[in-house]
Amino acid sequence: MRGSSFGYLLREGAKNIYANRLMSFASIGTLVACMLLIGGSLLFSMNINRAVGYVEQQNEVEVELDDGLSDEQIKEVDKEITLIDNVYERKFVSKDALMEELKAQSDDLAALLDGLEEDNPLYDSYRLKVKDLSRLSSTVMKLESLEGVSAVRAPDMVGEIMTNVKRAVSSAGYFIVAILLVVSLVIMGNTIKVTVFNRRKEINIMKYVGATDAFIRLPFFVEGFLLGLVSALISFGLLWVGYNYILDVIAQNPSTWMTQVYSNIIPFDEIAAQMLAWFLGGGVFIGVFGSMFFVNKYLKV
Which of 41, 81, 99, 279 is deepest in the core (most CB within 10 A)? Predict the structure, then answer.
């Protein structure tokens, strides 16, 4: 295809948007709304996953060792713990160190434990952190089966709640994205359908004089591409402004709880490049795929 023909087809695609500006405006508005909802769902899911990760890091599994283990036996238990792949951090706490910790918690405990240093009734232990809370139960079972371990205390309820929240958010996010993608494609298809109908006589004449299918389809390709691109850029800008506004509101709240929430929210600057790539890719895909699919369906060439 010559450069002049290609330029003509690009101009035709842009002219189609202006000629059907009301429908194009409605398409862009709908696509922007859908992409904002998709982007909001993605951001919410990403922040929930970070929050779950933060909770995972804060929760410890305490492994109580049998009383009277030798140093060699404790080293053997340590070696066995390192072989459990869901454990990413471990700390040995001797019974003497545990007593000092308890004494430091309150004066009452200190008075109660005072004088027991020589005959310490506490226990040596390991404090562990796990990578994945959804595998907490199986990790606890492995720890309980180790020789030299008398008891394992783990936040089972927290692990189950966090796992269910993570699963529910992921499932809801996928469902919302799928529904909005279908809606976006239908809206884009209706826009192209109106354009095809308005230009049906011109298309018939072009076919009679020998125009190829690709030559006729390209303006609709350009139209879908531009609509998707403009929608993506507008959505990205609005999402950035809205997200930062919400962060500013949270940052100005004096409550300790809100301060803790703010400290674990993902800054938009950190994911801006990734979000822009998703928006551009999604917008262009919706525009191009929607236009080509419905052109092939409604354009009899």
Answer: 279
Angle CA 10–11–14, to nearest 5: 90
The encoded tokens of residue 288 equal 């191009």
Of 8, 10, 3, nearest in space to 224 by CA: 10
- Give me the residue spans of the domains in the chain: 3-55+160-298, 60-154
- Give the single-character DSSP code of 122: S
**What's the angle, vertex CA 74, arms to CA 72 and CA 76, rounded to 5?**
70
- Contact (CB, 8 A) for 243 and 291: no
Give, to the nearest 10 degrees, the angle between helix 21-58 and helix 268-298: 140
Say yes or no: domain 60-154 is CATH 3.30.70.3040: yes
CA distance 79 to 98: 22
pLDDT 10s digits, 62-101: 899 988 888 899 899 999 999 998 888 889 988 888 888 8
Sheet of 87-93, strands arranged across:
87-93, 125-130, 61-65, 149-153
Q: How far apart are the C-alpha atoms of 199 and 301, rounded to whole Å?
A: 13
pTM value > 0.85: no
Instruction: Give SS3 for 231.
Output: helix
